[in-house]
Design a protein that fits this description.
By secondary structure, the protein is of the alpha+beta class. It contains 13 helices and 23 strands. The chain binds 5'-O-(N-(L-cysteinyl)-sulfamoyl)adenosine (5CA).
């Protein structure tokens, strides 16, 4: 993509209600525009990141055997009346009447709808277990939408639902998702910390939340330092769940079960939440199957959420400096920027275009900064939007056979010989996943 053809409306000033760094940087870098409180338009750069995150979430769901589908955003009130949550949800639920006066709502989550779909088609234990998910916009009329996309009213969530014959099976499904979540966040270069959690309006008696570490996070986490050094190859959910981890209001210094030298204290942001709630919805919504003995039993269910749009903000909270965003490679909107510092110079143009077509052919998403603007603006814009690897082509260096390569994550620039540029850049783009 040529920068001159791309729509990146970077701005200098941010509105005063942008309190936290990710919100400020998303507005500054032209990723989002607020439409009304807690509701945003995703501009091209923001959408690219959202889609990259969504794709990692999708791949790990698919790897764990979940089936992707798509349920509507607008639901009928009927099922919610049956489950008893139509009243419980209160003002957080956006209620709508259609032209015939039927009560509808903008889904805040999908336990009811999915249970109804399940019970329509599945009647035998032989068809279990099943795990279905979708990535769809949700609406919760939060009292205080704030922190940009981190606590929106409209937000993108991946939510899935597991169906098993009994508690034992449900725990296996729960642990499969647990593992998929850790893998998902590790692939984004994040450090996930899993904690036992309250079930809230979703219900049930087993629940974990997943926080990612970020110095600017809202929660304070106390946890066993082992949780920081996970090996993707040998993840054991039962073992992970046995480590100590607590948020500040659960942690009691005098009753902490682990030694002080093993305890870490860091700030975190909740990005995922998983629940096992037994037969709470299946009984009310008639999701029964026949077991081996021909007996009708209510299925055991779990639900699992990842805040896909919240992750965009959370990733920025975990990866930024005073110049802007430092995207991990796996989610970066562009992996590589080519900065042509002298677009009116024939040599700079020829070299830039050569690299641009080379890296595009290598399937590397590249932003070619061909704009006629000051060198300072070019450097600062590419740092702001956080491209992890940047090739900087200047007239004088080029004449001396030299080109600069910048590693935005380490904030290091090196001058290298022209004939090594492709090799060095490719290496930087492919070593470690992030
Ligand atoms: N039905 C369950 C799991 S599928 C559920 O709704 N769980 S939840 O309420 O904990 O939400 C799941 C995830 O969605 C949260 O961990 C969070 O990352 C994200 N989320 C929740 N509320 C918001 C919000 N207002 N803005 C942005 N993301 C949100």
């Amino acid at each position: 993509m040529k920068y001159s053809e791309f729509f990146i409306p970077t701005v200098k000033d941010v509105p005063s209600d942008a309190e936290i760094i990710s919100h400020k940087l998303m507005i500054k870098s032209g990723m989002i525009k607020q439409s009304s409180a807690g509701i945003y338009s995703w501009l091209p750069l923001g959408l690219k990141v959202l889609k990259n995150i969504e794709q990692i979430v999708r791949e790990e769901q698919d790897n764990a055997g979940a089936n992707e589908m798509l349920m509507p955003t607008i639901q009928s009130a009927d099922l919610w009346i049956k489950s008893g949550r139509y009243d419980d949800y209160g003002k957080e639920m956006l209620r709508i009447n259609d032209r015939s006066g039927r009560e509808m709502l903008y889904g805040p989550t999908n336990e009811e709808l999915i249970t109804d779909i399940f019970q329509t088609y599945i009647t035998s234990y032989r068809e279990l277990p099943k795990n279905l998910y979708h990535i769809q916009w949700k609406f919760r009329d939060e009292l205080r939408p704030r922190f940009g996309v981190m606590r929106g009213r409209e937000f993108l969530m991946k939510d899935n639902y597991s169906f098993d014959l009994n508690e034992e099976g449900a725990k296996i499904s729960y642990n499969k998702m647990f593992k998929a979540y850790i893998k998902t966040f590790l692939r984004m270069g994040l450090t996930p910390i899993s904690l036992r959690a309250e079930t809230g309006p979703i219900g049930g008696n087993l629940s974990h939340e997943f926080q990612i570490l970020a110095n600017t996070g809202e929660s304070t986490l106390y946890y066993d330092k082992e949780l920081e050094s996970l090996d993707t190859e040998s993840l054991d959910p039962d073992k992970l769940q046995s480590y100590y981890a607590a948020v500040d209001d659960q942690h009691d210094e005098n009753n902490c079960p682990i030694a002080k030298e093993n305890l870490k204290i860091s700030k975190g942001i909740e990005v995922g939440h998983v629940f096992y709630f037994g037969t709470k919805y299946s009984e009310k919504l008639n999701a029964y199957v026949q077991d081996k003995d021909g007996k009708r039993v209510a299925v055991h269910m779990g639900s699992y959420g990842i805040g896909v749009s919240r992750l965009v903000g959370a990733l920025i909270e975990a990866n930024h400096d005073e110049k802007g965003i430092k995207w991990p490679k796996s989610v970066a909107p562009f992996k590589l920027s080519i900065l042509n510092l002298m677009p009116d110079d024939q040599n700079c143009n020829t070299k830039s275009l050569e690299y641009y077509s080379y890296f595009m052919d290598e399937n590397i998403e590249t932003l070619y900064d061909d704009r006629i603007c000051s060198i300072g603006k070019k450097l600062s814009d590419n740092d702001l939007i956080g491209t992890p690897v940047q090739i900087i082509i200047g007239k004088r260096d080029l004449a001396a056979g030299i080109i600069e390569i910048k590693d935005r994550i380490l904030n290091k620039t090196e001058k290298i010989k022209i004939d090594e540029v492709k090799k060095v850049a490719l290496k930087k783009l492919t070593i470690n996943a992030f």
